[in-house]
From TrEMBL:
It comes from Nitrosomonas nitrosa. GO terms for molecular function: carboxypeptidase activity. Residues 42-162 form the D-alanyl-D-alanine carboxypeptidase-like core domain. The keyword rRNA processing does not apply. It comes from the Bacteria. GO terms for biological process: proteolysis. InterPro entries: DD-CPase-like, VanY-like_core_dom, VanY/YodJ_core_dom, Zn_M74/Hedgehog-like. The keyword Protease applies. SUPFAM superfamilies: Hedgehog/DD-peptidase. This is D-Ala-D-Ala carboxypeptidase. Metallo peptidase. MEROPS family M15B. Keywords: Carboxypeptidase, Hydrolase, Protease. The lineage of its organism: Bacteria, Pseudomonadati, Pseudomonadota, Betaproteobacteria, Nitrosomonadales. Signal peptide: none annotated.
Length: 179
């Protein structure tokens, strides 16, 4: 079994400005919209803002669903182990799966979203366009836009609640879009 030290040196992540994330004090459940009865965990404030955003999107004719929310460090490690077992190369995997402790999903504020019905290429959906134009109103930000300097790939599905709503700053961060 691999250990965190085998995956990444903390200095490398720190050099890229990536924080080590701690679990939130409280997590609450919300339905994912993917499978009936399946629930995801997130912070209470994230859930409140997600529900408001989800309702507004639905009123605008846009279907959104959660694919992932909170993930523990053990779940993060399992994702990496599974990908390695399927022949994945570690250097590549760490461009789209953060090492345990370094994933925004550990905060209970990160949501991986998809359109409803699901789309093959999320960034080409009306749902993604809607998110880019509206999430800042609810405190969500696209974490890994094209050209980000975190070392992670472009993730149009990954949005993180910021615990504050600074409309201008968040809206400007969403303007980095697909090419």
């Amino acid at each position: 079994m691999l250990c965190i030290e085998c995956w990444v040196s903390p200095g490398t992540y720190a050099d890229r400005g990536l924080p080590f994330y701690r679990y939130p004090a409280e997590l609450v459940a919300v339905s994912t919209g993917v499978f009936e009865g399946q629930q995801c965990l997130m912070t209470p404030r994230t859930r409140s803002q997600w529900r408001a955003m989800h309702t507004t999107a639905a009123n605008d004719g846009v279907g959104l669903q959660i694919c992932w929310a909170f993930r523990s460090a053990d779940q993060q490690a399992k994702l990496i182990r599974d990908q390695l077992a399927w022949g994945g190369k570690l250097d590549y995997l760490l461009t789209w799966i953060a090492a345990p402790g370094y994933s925004e999903h550990h905060t209970g504020r990160a949501l991986d979203l998809d359109s409803f019905p699901p789309a093959e290429k999320f960034e080409d959906t009306p749902a993604f366009d809607w998110l880019c134009n509206n999430t800042w109103k609810f405190g969500f930000k696209l974490s890994y836009p094209i050209g980000n300097d975190s070392g992670f790939i472009y993730e149009p599905w990954h949005w993180c609640y910021q615990d504050i709503i600074e409309n201008t700053a968040l809206h400007q961060s969403c303007e980095v879009r697909k090419i």
